Amino acid sequence: MDDEREDSRASALQNHLERFLIYLRVEKGSSPYTVKNYGSEIQEFVDFAADEGVRDWTGVNVPFIRRYLLWLNSRKLAQASVARRISELRSFGKYLMRNGELAQNPFRLISLPRVPERLPNYLEYDEILAMLNVPDTSTPKGLRDRAILEVLYAGGLRISELVGLNIGDYSAEEQQLRVWGKGSKERIAFLGQPACRALEAYLTYGRPKFLQARKEAAATAALFLNRFGDRLWLGSVDTLIRKMAKAAGIARRVTPHVLRHTFATHLLNGGADLRYIQELLGHANISTTQVYTHVSQERIREVYLRAHPRAQKSD
Predict the structure, then answer these.
(1) Which of 42, 131, 202, 314 could form a disulfide with 206 if both were Cys (CB 3.0 to 4.6 A apart)?
(2) Is 158 a catalytic residue?
(3) Out of 38, 122, 202, 292, which one is annotated catalytic?
(4) Is 261 a catalytic residue?
(5) Is there a catalytic annotation at residue 283?
(6) So what's the pLDDT on residue 5?
(7) Over pLDDT 70: what percentage of the chain?
(8) Domain identity same for 269 and 129
(9) Does the predicted TM-score (pTM) go above 0.70?
(10) Does a structural domain hold residue 118?
């Protein structure tokens, strides 16, 4: 009986969340990674509401949302994590308004926490070279890992974009990849000759070996495969990059997204126009790309201090 009461008081919020996740997946074409994150973090709010005895959206007001924020802060979450949750709830509220479930979006009445601006973490070119020398390219796994590193650095891909690649997305003739980014937006990622050579070696000598371990008779279109012959998943790539960075002697934390930052920073330092970098990264807004200008300005300052005779310290 208690379980039935618990289910009924959360049912309105829960049902709306489930429909919202279907909307994200089917209508907006959001990636599985995005849908998973939205689902788990908005579910926190739904569970909190149930524990507080809130049965429907009439109880979700500013005082209630502030109690939720206090609860989040009590868990010692970073301000960026709190801000992300409120942003997700704003999207949820916008969806409910559009579908006539809410007259106004209560989450819009709460300001986002101030998040300290962090400059992108990126690698120097010699660190990239050190990582590229880690995989043992005499093995299928080493061929795959080298190709993954080359593609991430050469194309500036998100990790979700990398694991979502199919064989048909690669054009050896054009030296490029067709990438499906956020919101199922298609863009082209260009590859240099080293990345193409690494991909060709993997496709010729590495991927067929992974396919032999596949239990299902039907072939898979996935470009990058795991040891079972199935599509490589997000967590495996993240672990792989961390291990290769450690093996290369890089002490700080390196993730696939750090390689994306490195791609953008090296392009900007090389003189590429910010608008072109925006297109290559698949950013919808130029303001998202402008964070890299801070990094570039620091590099310019270093060059100035080292090169200008009146900028150097006097004896």
Answers:
(1) 202
(2) yes
(3) 292
(4) no
(5) yes
(6) 44
(7) 85
(8) yes
(9) no
(10) no
Domain with 36 in it: 2-109
Which residues have C-beta within 8 Å of that of residue 183, sequence separation ≥ 6?
28, 29, 30
Question: Of 80, 109, 138, which residue constitutes the final position of a domain?
Answer: 109
**Measured between alpha carbons, how far is residue 164 from residues 31, 224, 233 in Å?**
9, 9, 9
Helix (H) or strand (E) holding 258: helix 256-269
Report yes or no on 117 lying in a domain.
Answer: no
Q: What is the DSSP letter of 5?
A: H
pLDDT tier, 300 (very low <50, low <70, confident <90, very high otherwise): low
Q: Would you call 257 a catalytic residue per the annotation?
A: yes
- The arithmetic mean of pLDDT across residues 206-220, rounded, is 85
Cβ–Cβ under 8 Å, residues 122 and 262: yes
Please indicate, yes or no, whether residues 39 and 70 belong to a single structural domain of this protein: yes
What's the mean per-residue pLDDT of the chain?
85
Residue pair 137/143 in contact (Cβ under 8 Å)? The answer is: yes
Name the active-site residue from 84, 146, 158, 207: 158
Q: How many domains does the chain have?
A: 2
Residues 25, 28, 187, 257: which is the catalytic one?
A: 257
Average the pLDDT over each of 7-21, 23-37, 84-98, 292-306 and give the range with the smallest value: 292-306
Give me the pLDDT at residue 11, please: 67
Task: Report which of 122, 154, 126, 127 is spatially closest to residue 299, judged by C-alpha positions.
Answer: 122
| 74, 196: one domain | no
Query: Which one is catalytic: 182, 197, 242, 246?
Result: 182
Per-residue pLDDT at 260 exceeds 80: yes
pLDDT beyond 70 at 132: yes
Active site annotation includes 182: yes
Whether 313 sits among the annotated catalytic residues: the reply is no
CA atoms of 114 and 78, how far apart (whole Å): 11
Q: Write down the catalytic residue from 9, 85, 144, 260.
A: 260
In a domain, 138, yes or no: yes
